[in-house]
Amino acid sequence: MGLDSVELVLRTEDEFSIILSDDEAASAITVGDLYNLVLSKLDVTPGCLTSKAFYATRRALAESLGLPRRSIRPATLLSTLLPDEARREQWQHIRDHLGLPIPSLRIPAAVKQNLYTRGFMMSGAIAAILCVTVLASGVLGVSAFFLSAVLWIAMTIAACSMVDRLLPSLRTELPADTAGELARVVLSLNHDRFVESVCSAKPTKEDVWQRLVDIICDQLQVTRDEVVPNARFVDDLDVS
């Protein structure tokens, strides 16, 4: 697909909140083909809010990573787009481009578990030393055990809290596996923002045609009388 056709497909997807595969887009030889394809997608679109969240998320990913929007689909793995070594910086760029709250990167479970175990063992050792010291001073054994147990719990909680708050450089785990999952998270965090812009009624066939003609005229710089159902994109409208 040439640049003109790719941009036309992207604008059509954004306008109607649908997804067109490469094969489907290639099958749209005429304006009428594209129109019928859009109509078929509108009948099965998963929902305006979900679609709008995905397109906003896709735009932010593409702009921040310097990728073509068409290369990012709902099933695209975020791990392939965001390598570990640059992930923290890239995640901030994505947040800036999106302009909406998104979840932070997380500490990988294996790393967190290792740190928690070390903190648990260290606090236990300190509590045991305290218990021995108290017993050596002549304090009753039950009191010494109680004090050391309380200290052990308090230090363990403090150690776990420090792992979450004081080690941001360890936050490299993505909060979602795919672009589609990330879009659903973005929607859940910013539901009211997307509701404000969602369309309230399903468009008619006439509305779809008029909006599609507007896109084609603007993108290809052709007049409305050239955009007819049997007009071929390549032969009649000079789409590259």
Describe the structure in your own words:
This protein is an all-alpha fold. It has two domains: 3-104 and 174-226, no CATH class; 109-170, no CATH class. It has helices spanning 3-16, 22-27, 31-44, 48-65, 78-81, 87-98, 109-136, 141-166, 179-189, 191-197, 205-220. Helix 1 runs antiparallel to helix 11, helix 4 packs across helix 6 and helix 4 (48-65) packs across helix 9 (179-189). It is rod-shaped. The model has no long low-confidence stretch (mean pLDDT 81).
List the main descriptive attributes of the protein structure presented here:
single chain, 240 residues, mainly alpha, 2 domains, 65% helix, 0% strand
Instruction: Characterize the biggest β-sheet.
Output: none
From N to C, what is the helix and strand string? HHHHHHHHHHH
Number of helices: 11
Which of globular, elongated, flat, extended, rod-shaped describes the shape?
Answer: rod-shaped
Sheet-strand content, in percent, reads under 5%
Structural class: mainly alpha
Give unreliable regions as ranges.
none
Overall pLDDT confidence: 81
Total domains:
2
Termini gap: 8 Å
Radius of gyration equals: 28 Å
Brief summary:
The protein is mainly alpha-helical.
Strand-helix topology:
Elements: H1 3-16, H2 22-27, H3 31-44, H4 48-65, H5 78-81, H6 87-98, H7 109-136, H8 141-166, H9 179-189, H10 191-197, H11 205-220
Helix pairs in contact: 1-11, 4-6, 4-9, 7-8
